[in-house]
Amino acid sequence: MRRRRPPGCVSAPLWQLQNGLAAGIQTAANGPYLVTNARLRDHLGQDIALPPQIALCRCGGSRTKPLCDGSHTSNGFSDAIDPKRVPDRLDSYPGVTLTVLDNRGTCQHSGLCSDRLPDVFRARREPFVAPSGARMDDIVSTVRNCPSGALGFAVDARPARGQTDWGGTREPAIEVSLDGPYRVTGGIAFTDADGIDVVRNRGASREHYAICRCGHSQNKPFCSGMHWYVDFKDPVAEPDREPTLFEWAGGRPALTRMTRLFFGKYVPGDLVLAPVFAAMPADLPDSMAAWLTEVFGGPAAPSGEPSSYPSLIAQIVPKGLNDEQRGRWATLLGAAAREAGLPADPAFQAAFAAYAEWEARVSPLPPVPVPRWDWGPAGPPSTQVAKPAAADAGQAPVTLPEAGQPVSFAAHIRPLFRQQDRRAMSFVFDLWLYDDVKAHAADILKHLRDGSMPCDGAWPPAWVETFARWTTTQMAP
Questions:
Q1: Which helix (DSSP H) or strand (DSSP E) does residue 175 occupy?
Q2: Is residue 328 part of a domain?
Q3: 20 to 30 A from 458, CA-CA: which of 27, 49, 296, 351?
Q4: From CA 122, how far away is CA 127, in angstroms rounded?
Q5: Both 287 and 322 in a single domain?
């Protein structure tokens, strides 16, 4: 356990006494999460300095997020599990090299798996998982990075939970994701108000899991993706301040994903760069992420020492890269950035490409001073583009058919589904596409009738009857 120094509000003896306790999270009945000695980070990967024992909001109403301010006592928060939640069912998808395991009842619908490997985790298609759609190492990496712990894999019919759970090497930590759940890693013990281990769904990871902080999950205390429905938002600090490249990229977690892909996949698979970096040290990806954090406007290393990245690169390529190697470096770094999910807007892409080209040409890098990269003369995207459209933009008003009037998908069925309904079901199918709804009409009707869809409240009977009429007629477009 990493030892932390106490803030001024905590006495040193009390801090030392608490700092030796095992990391843990306990739910208070209809109240907050009581957290002991776990590292807390914001969505950019930066530490939040707090005492060893804190109370984190899970009702969604605190004005001091992520800390609890007692709002749960007045806003009617209940920690009851919704009986209409997605069922606890572990699905198995055998492939050529491994079997992918998935429990939709555990998933928080972050989209990280379908964004990275869309040919394996196929949004709006059945079956959801095609386990032979990518290389084994890419599937394993994606499964390991599933924030909810819904995904797993088996080799030779044996669940490989130890590999899925990072071999128990990660430090206990809690990430306060932006406008979303708490993402827990490092195997932090999770108990209820009576100190009893919280019951998990089948196949769920105990090393990493996502717990609700919007107050509306159907699968409390775990996240079920309801923060999308209720439009849960974190308070915006300094809304008029120009974001740094570090913040726009997604912080240290995003940069680390990229550098690990770059040195773990793209460089070893390239005929030009693989021989040069065949003996690279294991900490090179994380060293590069720390370097880029500071270069792109993020915080320097806590120790104040210069990054080890320039010296590591100097050991590998003391005379720098040649012209061919420089070209491959910049190209592959851009590919790793795209796969890692870094922003695709032109302003960020231009600034990032300029840095990649600069680094390839000046390598080996001078250790000090650390260069500071900014947006350049064009400025950040927020000064160039309009704000996103409203959540339900493009949705037609609901108009029910008259008695005896044919029911049409475009005129009567599609408008019944809101943008948030569409988004919540996007991992299976698109509720605004005629072919998708027609193919799944029977299953959709079943859930509409039992009130489990949409998950924030049942439809009026007249709407359900309209959908039923459409399914029993010719299902007109």
A1: strand 173-176
A2: yes
A3: 27
A4: 8
A5: yes
Range of the domain at 356: 245-383
The gap from C-alpha 97 to its chain's centroid, in whole angstroms, comes to 26
Do residues 99 and 131 make contact, with C-beta atoms less than 8 angstroms apart? yes
Predicted confidence band at 366 (pLDDT cuts at 50, 70, 90)? Answer: confident
Boundary (domain end) residue, out of 365, 383, 401? 383
Report d(CA 111, CA 121) in Å as an integer. Answer: 9
Identity at 25, one-letter amino acid code: I
Residues 6+ apart with CB under 8 A from 422: 430, 431, 432
Decide the pairing of beta strands 173-176 and 24-27.
unpaired
How far is residue 200's CA from residue 181's CA, in Å, rounded to a whole number? 17
Q: What is the pLDDT of residue 157?
A: 83
Determine contact, residues 213/181, Cβ cutoff 8 Å: yes
Residues 334 and 447 in one domain: no
**Co-location of 319 and 372 in the same domain:** yes
What length is written for the chain? 477
> What's the pLDDT tens digit per position in 59-72?
999 999 999 999 99
The packing angle between helices 441-450 and 461-472, to 10°, is: 160
In a domain, 286, yes or no: yes
* CA gap 224, 452 in Å, rounded: 13
In terms of domains, do 327 and 419 share one?
no
Q: How far apart are the C-alpha atoms of 318 and 365, rounded to whole Å?
A: 10
> How do residues 160-187 score in pLDDT, each as one tens digit?
888 889 888 888 999 999 999 999 999 9
| Beta pairing class for 24-27 and 189-191 | parallel
Residue 216 has pLDDT above 60, yes or no: yes
